[in-house]
Amino acid sequence: MSALSDPISDFLTRLKNASRAGKDDFRAPYSKMKGEIARILKEEGYIWSYEVDTTGKFPEILVKAKYMDNTPALTDLKRVSRPGLRRYVGVGDLPRVLGGLGISILSTSKGVMTGTQARKQNIGGELLAYVW
User: Residue 119: which of 130, 132, 129, 106 has the closest Cα?
Assistant: First the structure.
């Protein structure tokens, strides 16, 4: 397997593909950032659960996708900031996703959080992705 230039995008793409294909779960290489993104997706109700598997040579994250009546809870997502073009937003520029029906995920100085949480704490950061 070749080295990835954007592992977060790979993780999000695996999640989207698993949801659209009707898979119950998927595995991806683990990192702290991916773990934090999975934590947010679980808190917001887009996935059932996640766990870190450390039995192999390299740790992996196992994510269980969420379905309601065979319809995925995650409709779509979009990676915003990427290694070649970072996108930073201030607290006044935090976007609303689909009029508040979706979430934005940010990496801030106080950790990874949703746009709503960042707005409440009055901080901005790197805009990682939109999820709806």
Answer: 106
The CATH number of 7-72 is: 3.30.1370.30
Selected from 1.20.190.50, 3.30.1490.10, 3.30.2010.10, 3.40.50.12780, the CATH number assigned to the domain covering 77-131 reads: 3.30.1490.10
Confidence of residue 4 (pLDDT cuts 50, 70, 90): confident
Reported as a single tens digit per residue, the pLDDT across 94-127 is 999 999 899 999 999 999 999 999 999 999 999 9
